[in-house]
Design a protein that fits this description.
The chain is α/β, with parallel strands linked by helices. It has helices spanning 5-12, 16-23, 26-34, 62-65, 74-86, 98-109, 124-139, 156-159, 165-168, 186-193, 218-229, 281-287, 305-320, 323-342, 368-380, 384-397, 421-438, 444-447, 449-458, and strands at 41-45, 48-51, 56-59, 115-121, 143-147, 178-181, 198-203, 232-236, 260-263, 275-280, 348-354, 357-362, 399-400, 402-403, 410-413. Strand 14 (402-403) and strand 15 (410-413) form a beta hairpin. Helix 2 crosses helix 3 (26-34).
């Protein structure tokens, strides 16, 4: 009997959440049910998802920026199908694959001057781990400095430079020789670098957890200090790169010339996991320093043909459809529309972002009843109001978004770069309606609080 994936999916679709509760992440499956996100999606295309009932959802998660080009992009899909049909020899391991060379060449053309040596792996955390390892070898130093609130991955290595205590707790001891400094505090950074033992200072040009944006002079001055003290300057562009913020690299907003850049997420076009760590040739050669060390750093699937083909197609789509420019234009419209709501609703404390990476931060209202409701929610768990907003967007407007991090009242919008004015208007209108309802303590937004507070307290 022929085996059919299509038939298997159709036969077992209803078991989706039960299987996760039994064999995968039980807590995550429960959370989806509590917040009303336990949908069974059957199709994704462009900026939208559809569930079993045919309901359409606007996807502002975009797989945490994996789907910059939207879902099921025809050009990327065609490239992968074409590759499969070619039956090319894959992962020979004792060769130099053509597609890896072509993708490295294309990436190097888009980098600041001097970044022309590429290492391919599978995820953003892989890319960051590679960057740290390369920095240590190239400088012969051991310490790494990172920013408070940073998120660079959840592997044991990257946890050492993760600014979130909730992520670190329970996994200590972590990578030794790591120290956090506050964003925009150049004196604190220089104090760390002055010791002369710091291999690298790593930053997200815009932090993903919270959408925190540095002061205009901070990153250029941080780069200058790194040069002064012989520390490598790493820009983690895993989430903010590939056009997300209206430039190919987010670091371009400040004219930076980092020593190492990490990319991942949408580089695979939403189809294949892939990451790239791009360095200066001098740094790269410090690792692969002798012929017998040509594989001293390696990963099994790092140059696989599917990932390389997806990467080449993704970069082609980015150029062909002018998505970097589109991200800048649509992001400006969306930021302007959401910022206008801040003038009308006192619970909106801030709207910030670049391109199509936008954060909205909330604060308690002055109204006594609303402030009391906010205080009760915060006492149960920090950041619950932002979760109320996320749930309302999903329930009433079929918009999928996220809280921007643990214990913060910030939501983050990461729509695909292909969105147009229709989607921007939809987002602004939905937020307007949600915030209008949130001004009524007996309204639908606050009605969710009882159940969520109960679950928070039960922990």
């Amino acid at each position: 009997m022929d085996w059919s994936l299509r038939q298997l999916i159709e036969a077992r679709r209803a078991d989706q959440y039960r299987l996760h509760e039994q064999y995968l992440n039980t807590s995550l499956a429960r959370v989806q049910g509590i917040i009303g996100f336990n949908k069974i999606y059957t199709r994704g295309e462009g900026a939208y998802l559809w569930d079993t009932e045919g309901t359409r959802y606007l996807d502002l998660l975009a797989g945490f920026s994996v789907f910059n080009f939207g879902r099921a992009h025809p050009a990327i899909k065609k490239a992968i199908q074409e590759l499969i049909e070619l039956d090319r020899p894959n992962l020979i391991k004792m060769d130099c694959p053509l597609l890896a060379g072509l993708l490295a060449e294309d990436l190097a053309k888009r980098m600041p001057a001097g970044l022309d040596a590429v290492f391919f792996a599978n995820s953003g955390a892989d890319a960051v781990d590679t960057a740290l390892k390369f920095a240590r070898a190239a400088t012969r130093r051991t310490r790494v400095v990172y920013l408070e609130h940073a998120f660079h991955g959840l592997t044991l290595g990257t946890l050492g430079i993760n600014g979130g205590e909730d992520f670190r707790k329970g996994f200590e001891p972590l990578l030794p020789g790591t120290d956090a400094v506050p964003m925009d505090d150049l004196a604190a950074l220089e104090k760390q670098l002055r010791a002369g033992d710091v291999a690298a200072f790593i930053v997200e040009p815009i932090q993903g957890k919270g959408v925190y944006i540095p002061a205009n002079d901070y990153l250029p001055e941080a780069q200058r200090l790194c040069r002064k003290y012989g520390t490598l300057f790493i820009c983690d562009e895993v989430q903010v790169g590939m056009g997300r913020t209206g430039r190919f690299l987010c670091s371009e907003h400040w004219g930076l010339e980092p020593d190492i850049v990490t990319l991942s997420k949408s580089l695979g076009g939403g189809y294949v996991p892939v990451s790239a760590t791009i360095t200066r040739r001098k740094t790269h050669d410090a690792i692969f320093s002798r012929l017998e060390k040509c594989q001293v750093h390696s990963t099994t699937f790092g140059q696989n043909e599917l990932a390389m083909a997806a990467g080449l197609a993704s970069l082609h789509v980015l150029d062909e459809e002018h998505l970097v420019e589109r991200s800048a234009a649509m992001g400006e419209k969306m930021l302007k529309g959401l910022a206008a709501l801040q003038e009308r609703y006192e619970m909106i404390a801030d709207v910030r972002g670049k391109g199509l990476m936008i954060g909205m931060e909330f604060q308690p209202a002055r109204t006594l009843a609303l402030r009391a409701a906010w205080t009760a929610a915060e006492a149960a768990q920090k950041g619950l109001f932002a979760q109320f907003v996320v749930m309302a967007l999903m329930r009433d407007h079929h918009i999928l978004t996220q809280v921007a991090g643990p214990d913060v009242n910030i939501i983050k919008f990461l729509p695909p770069l292909i969105i147009g004015e229709e989607e921007v208007a939809m987002i602004v209108s939905a937020m307007d309606q949600v915030m209008a309802e949130a001004t009524e303590v007996r309204g639908r937004v606050w009605a969710q609080s009882v159940e969520l507070v109960k679950h928070a307290l039960s922990r």
